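Exercise 7.
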Amino acid sequence: MNRRRGFDLRSTALLFGLLAAVIGILGAAAKVAVGVLERRPELVVVLCLVGVPAALALRSGRRRFSARRAARRAVAALDEGTATALHTLETEPLPSPAPVAAETLAPVGQEPTLPLGTGPAEPTEVLVEAEPEAVDYEALDADEFEQAIAALCERDGCSDVEVVGGAGDLGADVVATAPDGRRLIIQCKRYCEANRVGSQDMQRFGGTCYTVHAADVAVVVTTSAFTAPAVEYAEQCGILCVDREALEAWSDGTGPEPWAVAADGGPVL
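Solution. The predicted structure, written as tokens, is:
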């Protein structure tokens, strides 16, 4: 006749106490595991240790299930996993935050300032005034000399500049409009130093520059010089005389333009 085992209050109380301890440890371990997994996903393997006691208990059906043995194994596994997780957190510090740029630390309401030498370089434009090119007017022929005088007029602000010298030009070699709007008529005399512009040359130009060409400013430019009678006639007719020295000064920018001198009423530049 089989005797039924009586109710053991002590064993039952011990069993429930162990289960309560296991549940508490599981809760604490779960909280630690969640925090660890957020920073170290590779520690998922630690949680696998929790399933080891269950796997061992179910491995063989021949062994009699023991709640005490399973509880002890679970507690040991959880202790080992918790220790491993805490050791990992202590030995592997969290990555330090990225350094804050110095210019972002300016007080509230104040524009951030960049360290010296680190700001964006602003392009600077340096304006260099080009110096007029020196021209050897004595090396030019008559046609080239007329073109060179026309180029000087354009350079200094004249408009509607034309080279009209040639047969039948009636004394006008270059026609232009001065910057102030006056009509400019220029006769060019490409002479050598020994050949000066005489009164006859001046008279032929004076007979056409105003009556035929309707000049407001009449100019005779030469690579040589003017005779005294030619200068006297020019003064009487209001013709401006530009000799070699005055031409070079006009060309290199050290002297005035002919129409500027004519505005002052001077016949000789």
